[in-house]
From TrEMBL:
Name of the molecule in the record: Transcription factor bHLH83
ATP-binding keyword on record: no
The keyword Cytoplasm is assigned to this record: no
GO biological process, one term: root hair initiation
């Protein structure tokens, strides 16, 4: 083995001091990550204050209403329960547009036969739908 010189001994001491320091910091960090355990009375008071905060109560009610409405919409849309939320909303938008188009077509007088008249031809219906679609 070689001799340990003064400078290498000083360097070794610095390294060991740094290691101890780092280990101490790590233990301190781990200790600070532990949850702060207050008395149960303090926790109850905090919880009660949060539940009485009007903003928190209003936000909770709003989230509940949104959730209820989405469930109702999910039941109305074909295959609504089988897809994710975004896809279901996209399907709902398409479905409502489709229904609006049907209402426009059915509201047009020329598609209802006059007494003794005949029903419109399929080509007439297609042309009317194309005209409605192109107007948007």
């Amino acid at each position: 083995m070689g001799l340990i010189t003064g400078s290498s001994l000083t360097m070794a001491m610095r390294c060991s001091t740094m290691m101890v320091s780092l280990l101490g910091m790590e233990e301190g960090l781990q200790a600070s990550k532990r949850p702060c355990l207050g008395t149960s009375g303090q926790q109850k008071v905090r919880k009660q204050m949060q539940t009485k905060d009007p903003q928190i109560v209003a936000a909770k009610k709003r989230r509940e209403r949104i959730s209820e409405r989405l469930k109702a919409l999910q039941e109305l849309i074909p295959n609504g329960s089988k897809v994710d939320l975004v896809t279901m909303l996209e399907n709902a938008i398409s479905y409502v547009k489709f229904l609006q188009l049907q209402v426009k077509v059915l509201a047009m007088d020329e598609f209802w036969p006059v007494q003794g008249g005949k029903a419109p031809e399929v080509t007439q219906v297609k042309e009317a739908i194309d005209a409605i679609l192109s107007s948007h």
